[in-house]
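4.2 Preliminary Data

To establish feasibility before requesting continued support, the project team ran the inverse folding procedure on a target of 435 residues. The structure was first converted into the token representation described in Section 3, and no sequence information of any kind was made available to the design step. The complete token record follows.
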């Protein structure tokens, strides 16, 4: 009991030492590669392909034979042979249909796996962008804290020179204390974003490693290549051309179409159950001297055939009707998926266009003007031409614009990722599509 209490006390005093992990910074492309190679959910999904391949092999099976024996005991056996042989059931028009159904299901599993892989990459991209955004917001707040510290120093110097009242120092300290809370909250947000990034990667055998984004900010990235995104000034092709390309490539539409094929092949297989099968028998028969009417040992071979599974009392009508219904459902689902895809694509297109416009507006106007504003405001306060309240308001406005720019960048990247999700293309080239 004493040892347990000591251990608990150590954990309370030094919890970080027990939860400490090696942090490894990786680029977005490295994160995508690690996720594809080691993601546990993706590895589990790939096993469905092996299962489907085994199902194809099972569907191509031949029926196992049966061993039959027939022995007569006592006087009933006089004049009747004793037999031992094999019987084999021959399926008629079923094996090929069953194999084609299994192959169609295999193709469906392959397309599902492609979709899982694509969706995994989009999740990793989104988590990476959100982590970088959280880190940049923290940088913005840290810069603001530095600015407020400088402001506090200026206020103290001016109070000492009797240029302003002591209220300026108090006001600066209050603003700084409020900012400390925001910084602490944002540090927690960065950790949360890092956990979500690792959750998206969900790598196997990496319990001692925690991945972090290689980029700490993206405000100064003009080519946008590191985050696999187009430049904000890139020309966007028309929606109609994007729609046509998307409807031909979307995974969910391909999957819905393949589900129709599976349903149709299942209907064929179920309908074939009405075809009777053939059972062949063959073997060896003999009569001993004591059982033979001639008093001599007699032997020979025998062969026979039977028609089995004649749909007389049950003709599989309910199963066939259900299979037809499944075909109709699959066709309706295909139409529904296409309709929803167009609406989702339209929504993603509009969001990306808006995010693109907003980001360019920040680049063209707000950022430059806000930097000039805070520079002039600081200079005016230091020279006694402006009040502290005015400077704090200006500073808050500036940091709000800088933070807004970061959010606009994150929104631009996330809208691009959402757009890629809807066009179902990992590398959508705007310039190529706009030609």
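Position-by-position output of the design step:
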């Amino acid at each position: 009991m004493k040892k347990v209490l000591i251990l608990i006390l150590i954990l309370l005093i030094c919890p970080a030492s027990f939860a400490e992990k090696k942090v490894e910074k990786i680029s977005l492309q490295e994160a995508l590669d690690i996720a594809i190679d080691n993601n546990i959910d993706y590895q589990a999904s790939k096993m469905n392909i092996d299962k489907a391949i085994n199902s194809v092999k099972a569907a191509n099976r031949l029926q196992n034979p049966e061993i039959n024996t027939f022995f007569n005991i006592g006087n009933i056996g006089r004049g009747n042979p004793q037999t031992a042989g094999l019987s084999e059931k021959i399926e008629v028009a079923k094996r090929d249909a069953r194999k084609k159904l299994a192959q169609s299901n295999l193709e469906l599993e392959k397309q599902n796996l492609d979709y899982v892989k694509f969706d995994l990459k989009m999740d990793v991209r989104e988590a990476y962008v959100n982590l970088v955004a959280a880190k940049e917001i923290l940088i913005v707040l840290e810069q603001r804290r530095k600015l407020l510290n400088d402001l506090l120093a200026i206020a103290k110097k001016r109070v000492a020179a009797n240029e302003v009242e002591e209220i300026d120092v108090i006001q600066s300290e209050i603003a700084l204390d409020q900012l400390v809370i925001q910084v602490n909250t944002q540090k927690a947000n960065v950790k949360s974003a890092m956990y979500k990034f690792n959750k998206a990667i969900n790598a196997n055998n990496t319990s001692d490693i925690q991945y972090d984004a290689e980029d700490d900010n993206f405000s100064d990235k003009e080519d946008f290549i590191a985050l696999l995104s187009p430049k904000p000034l890139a020309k966007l092709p028309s929606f109609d051309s994007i729609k046509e390309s998307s409807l031909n490539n979307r995974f969910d539409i391909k999957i819905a179409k393949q589900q129709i094929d599976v349903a149709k092949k299942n209907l064929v297989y179920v309908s074939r159950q009405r075809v009777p099968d053939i059972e062949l028998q063959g073997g060896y028969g003999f009569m001993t001297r004591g059982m033979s009417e001639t008093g001599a040992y007699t032997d020979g071979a025998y062969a026979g055939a039977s028609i089995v599974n004649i749909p007389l009392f049950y003709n599989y009508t309910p199963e066939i009707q259900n299979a037809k219904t499944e075909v109709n459902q699959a066709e309706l689902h295909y139409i529904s998926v296409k309709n929803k895809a167009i609406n989702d694509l339209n929504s993603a297109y509009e969001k990306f266009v808006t995010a693109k416009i907003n980001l360019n507006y920040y680049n063209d106007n707000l950022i430059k003007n806000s930097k000039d504003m805070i520079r002039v405001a600081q200079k005016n306060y230091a020279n006694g031409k402006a009040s502290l309240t005015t400077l704090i308001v200006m500073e808050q406005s500036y940091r709000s614009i800088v933070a807004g720019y970061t959010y606009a960048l994150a929104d631009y990247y996330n809208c691009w990722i959402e757009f890629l999700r809807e066009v179902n293309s990992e590398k959508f080239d705007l310039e190529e599509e706009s030609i």
